[in-house]
Amino acid sequence: xxxxxxxxxxxxxxxxxxxxxxxxxxxxxxxxxxxxxxxxxxxxxxxxxxxxxxxxxxxxxxxxxxxxxxxxxxxxxxxxxxxxxxxxxxxxxxxxxxxxxxxxxxxxxxxxxxxxxxxxxxxxxxxxxxxxxxxxxxxxxxxxxxxxxxxxxxxxxxxxxxxxxxxxxxxxxxxxxxxxxxxxxxxxxxxxxxxxxxxxxxxxxxxxxxxxxxxxxxxxxxxxxxxxxxxxxxxxxxxxxxxxxxxxxxxxxxxxxxxxxxxxxxxxxxxxxxxxxxxxxxxxxxxxxxxxxxxxxxxxxxxxxxxxxxxxxxxxxxxxxxxxxxxxxxxxxxxxxxxxxxxxxxxxxxxxxxxxxxxxxxxxxxxxxxxx
Length: 372
Fold this sequence. Notes:
The protein has helices spanning 4-11, 41-51, 101-115, 134-137, 147-151, 171-177, 181-186, 202-216, 220-232, 257-268, 281-289, 355-365, and strands at 57-64, 67-73, 75-80, 83-89, 96-97, 238-239, 253-255, 272-273, 276-277, 292-293, 299-301, 304-309, 318-325, 329-334, 339-345. The protein is an alpha+beta fold. The strands form 4 sheets. An 8-stranded antiparallel sheet has the order 2-1-15-14-13-12-11-10, with helices on both faces.
């Protein structure tokens, strides 16, 4: 049975979109106490790490009100979409796999393309966007699926990404190895009416990425550089492609921790950063409006996870938008507190990879906020 890391590494080609390494754009910094954190938050983080309660991290970046408050990097074993990088001494200029946080970035790109009238609205039927598959479009049931069902992962098709990624029957692996990845996704057996069942499906993001490329007439990497990364001051990135030369909009993006924090700042600014509009506020707000339950206490909308999280100073739990990626990659964004937190981790393919990023977010970041 092939190891997923071996399979993906053999499928991946040279990462596209990378520029020669350059220093990341500077973040204004602030002492924790000046932006409403406990003044000893860094010491508390250090204690958590030394005690073993917090571990497996490669990078931690915390911002509030647009200021860099906390930043730590660590040495550890790392991988690039299945390619073994060995022991890496991570730092501010180190690119890191986002894995499925890439899906959340792809969602922003769709919103930008939609603002420009380059891609269909969410209410548009999916199969009408893929006339190259008339045999699939002939199925009346498939004609009920809209783009909104796709970006919310409620299209109702069979897709098993719950199998270990070492299993060649994992749907993501099967898609990567398919002759035609889009047909593979679109012809999956129908299990439920669209909109009635959420099921984690990287194939959905592959379709969203294809619509972006069709509409913009650019690779998703080139469009991201022009429409998102350049405006945010992100000048170095990689977007890995499969053996067919297609960039992976579901898991192939590599960014620096500070630069992923810039995307968090964009969300906090409702699509605007440094007085510059990047994506419409309506697209960001729609993440919450159209969210659907995942069945495990989370909500999911437009390729972002959501959870109401308790935080001191508020009578009720506060909404958090989250990008999740295999191995413990996280982008946490809490608009009501103006906090963003990036976590890069090396716990790839492990069932407990969520534990330490969640503990960091709740106990160190939110547990040390001082409101008012």
